[in-house]
Amino acid sequence: MDMQATNIPAGDDAGTDVVGPEPDEGVQRCLRLLVDAGLRPTRQRLALGQLLFLRGHRHVTAEGLYEEALAANAYLSLATVYNTLNQFTEAGLLRRIAADGIKSFFDTDTSVHPHFYLEGEDVLVDVADGLAFTRIPEALPGHEIARLDVIVHLRRKRVA
Q1: Residue 151: which of 110, 102, 98 has the closest Cα?
Q2: Rounded Cα gap, residues 45 and 122, in angstroms
Q3: Element (H, E) at 36
Q4: Spatial contact of 94 and 110, defined as CB atoms under 8 Å apart
């Protein structure tokens, strides 16, 4: 996917508003998604939004998305990718999953669902349907549960 083909002006990392000829259907979907989330559709947000939201459900890291952006000729800094992922998360478009305490994954499915984390492979995978909670703890006084994250860590069996 060539990001330059979307007729979006270059601009700086602070972002410029999208202008130019009528964008294609995928770009239009991203534009609507960003605007509906209360975000200005800058060149950077639109480029990363296309990579994130037009390819189905995904779990990405900032570093992985940065590499995808470079391969798609969207020349952004790694700091811009981190900032944009954080903005998308704050706007409710992504869910941050801290699988190993070091690296964060960003999930395009913001619903409550559990994950497998494949240790040593740095991969996050949705757990198939069937996990049920019969009881979750009460929140502390004066608090409410904001979300529930369940991550099951897996590692390859050692061959005997």
Answers
A1: 98
A2: 25
A3: helix 25-36
A4: yes
